[in-house]
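User: Can you help me understand a structure? I only have the sequence.
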Amino acid sequence: MFRHILLISTLMLANPLSAEEENTTPESPAYVTDDLSIFLHTGSSRNYRIQGSVTAGSLISILDNNPETEFTQIEDDKGRVGWVESKYLTQTSGVRQALTSAEATILSQTAELEALTQRVAELTENNNQYEQQLNEFKSSVADLTSNLNAKNQEIAKLTELSDNKATREQLQWLMKGGGVLFFGLLIGYIMAFMPKRKKRNDFGYGDL
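Assistant: Let's start by predicting it. Here is the structure, written out as tokens:
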């Protein structure tokens, strides 16, 4: 009894694809197991000529299978059609295929990262240029503002001087007018107190 169980277990382990062969359809994808390379025969048994080998982990297409000889007809990744032993095929990708896919993904993502890095560098350079231009504009505005303030101060001083000059001129005119009026009044006042001269008569004599 133990020998029968051991024999059944050995057959199940030696033929991993046999449980799936009934559901296998032509042109369905499969993989060669990772641990070895297998021979590609021209017919569905080892008695047929070997036309090459299929590398472990290769992606192949299943075309047909022979349950009696436990051989499967495949088309490999090089376009060759032949028969291989079914027990060396699996429906899941192996480590090699996963590694190849991962390497392709890494290369693609590396290229994208380099492109993004270059774009970031370009944007950073453009941003630096914009900041430099902005700083130059701010400096120009500051200079113009300073010059404008200086001109405004100069105008204020000139306006103050002009107002003072006009005020001085008005005061001078007032002082001159006041002096003339003062002297006129003074002269009138003096003349009012001066003795009047007697009028002469017709004969040239004064009053007797």
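Now, to help you interpret it: Residues 1-24 have pLDDT under 50 and may be disordered. The longest strand covers residues 59-66. Let me know which part you'd like to focus on.
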